[in-house]
Amino acid sequence: MAKSVIITCAVTGSVHVPSMSPHLPVTPEEIATHAIEAAEAGAAILHLHARDPEDGRPSPDPEVFGRFLPRIKQASDAVVNITTGGGSTMTVEERMAAALAHSPEMCSLNMGTMNFGLFPAIDRIAHFKHDWEKPFLEATRDFVFKNTFGDIETALARLGGDHGVRFEFECYDVGHLYTLKHFVDRGLIRPPFFVQFVLGVLGGIGPDRENLVFMKTTADKLFGADYEFSVLGAGRHQMPLAAIALSLGGNVRVGLEDSLTIGPGQLAERNADQVRQVRKIAEGLSLDIAKPAEARARLALKGGDRVGF
């Protein structure tokens, strides 16, 4: 019997700049509203970043996170997943600050240092709303997204060990799966674990069906029945790769962090639009949608009563 589908919604992220879409949630109020709507539409996990309320730039400030986390918890039973990926201008310590302050059930954890190119988006933006946006994107031409073995060890110890956090292990290439296996072999990561295959980011593996199948085949070989996988397709690849993931027995991630559109040339106005769309695909395949309680049980999470917000 097929497992129910865990839908993750990544609400705002740090990849897109406000000039790319007027619908990108920026303020704590907007982030909270979008997150709650996504949960009501069927997202069991909410993957959360924060932004400066004044100009929309990515923010690591735990106080800004604290302005929307309690509201989400009060209005929804969804699992809260706080990023440790942060943004390209942040140090590793800044990237972990909000998670350390608020002790969520889950955090994202990137499994390798890599190039992470956002600069091609500049050519698609006719007018920038804020002075910081174009330099932010251009800087990724010479940017290395740092996630060393030491960084990963630190996150596993400080968040996993000290706070009981479980992780969304973000794997942007096949080598990241082998890095994950390294930590599993050392006993620093114990099953069940949640692996997010990320396809279509410039600097990572390409958004091809064959690559997705190879990622799954490799993970099956390395981890057997000890893991759950989910698929994130960047940009226009979001829904096609989600459909393939569902056909392979996987889970899916959507949201305005990963794609700003709901169809060719059509901006998504709400995160919930994408949740409803991928839910429709899943239900068309006769798949059930996992409730937050199911996600907690399958991923061995500590429970919403043990978070710090």
What do these coordinates show?
This protein has 309 residues and is an alpha/beta fold. It has one domain (7-306): Aldolase class I (TIM Barrel). Helices cover 38% and strands 17% of the residues. It has eleven helices and 14 strands. It has an eight-stranded parallel beta barrel with strand order 1-2-5-6-9-10-11-12, surrounded by eight helices. A two-stranded antiparallel ribbon has the order 3-4. It has a two-stranded antiparallel ribbon with strand order 7-8. It is globular, with a radius of gyration of 18 Å. 48% of the residues are buried. InterPro entries: Aldolase_TIM, BKACE.
Quick overview of this protein structure:
The protein is an alpha/beta fold and 309 residues long. It is 38% helix and 17% strand. Helix 7 links the parallel strand 9 (166-171) and strand 10 (193-199).
